[in-house]
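Researcher: Here's a chain I'd like modeled. Treat it as a single chain, no partners, no ligands.
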Amino acid sequence: MAINAHRVSAGEALRVLKAGWAQQKRGHLTTSWMLHGRPGVGKTELVQELASDIGAELYDLRLTTIEPQDLRGLPFYDHDNKKTVWFPPEDLPDTSEPAILFLDELTAASQQLQPTVYGLLQERRVGRRTLPASVFIVAAGNSVEDGAVAYEMGTALSDRMVHMIVQADPEDWLKNYAPRASIHPTVAAFLRSRPDLLDTTETSLRRGDAIACTPRSWTRVSAILASEADRDARNVMIAGTIGAAAAAEFALVVDDIASSVQVHAMLTTMRAKRAELYPENLHGLTALVFALASATTQDTLPAAIEILADLPMLDRPGLPVSELAAFGFELLISRAMEEGWHQVFATSAAYAEYSESRVQAGLV
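Model: Modeled as a single isolated chain. Structure tokens:
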């Protein structure tokens, strides 16, 4: 059975879930939510981000690892009242504070578990225990077509939720997820030039390959780059994460960027002496832009603004330096707003000069 819902990026799904949470807090809409999407597309990460953003405790239930009694609790005999009562499980929220109950791998849950889950999704209860109004319910799962272990979702289950199909979106991932997740600048730079490699699940399934590129696997590649110094070992790890073909192409970019990007040196060098530190090629310049967005502190923000403001004036024929500068300022301003550093932009002479140059060029 096809899921005839909207396809959205992870960032858009997060925005919709926040709107749903706001509605529930006001008492206007209390429902359950379902995120469909391929393995590794970022469903779990966006729920974790939602919990962080709204200040909620996350109760993460992997439905493939539990039995119905794990949700119902354990029975015991109440001798005084002469009846059986239940000890509630600790995995279900019982608090007046904001909480998210995340029912992951819903479409892979056993058929025996589904009636218990039905009550949670629609009636917000298990047995006689009802979830507090402060609990926001989100479920997630893959489909049979994704090559994952999954069952078809029947109408009895699907009718209990609001559905969204989460799909990989390179622009959303690079602008919204990568900076907040501290994705390695080399990974971000590579995917900006090869957005088609962010998610190759469909191609891998068609070819019969077991390993595919996904947002989740690129996050793992980022961690490998940050922690493994041995080049040969690192290359084996990355090939085992995104596949040999993508890893071979990526390795060339890693070597190129490693020899040309000197972000920390640039942040501590006087403006007049920085020109020779800028990378010569597009991969290096792109990595520099992402590195500035993640490595900058409040103290080094004025220098980072100068570096981006001077980018369009570089002698780099054929390279989109003005576009890179604009993109870099998007990332840097977003970071400054999150951290409360926006006043630095208001007092920066370099940013004032850059903004005026864009006005003069008719770009604003």
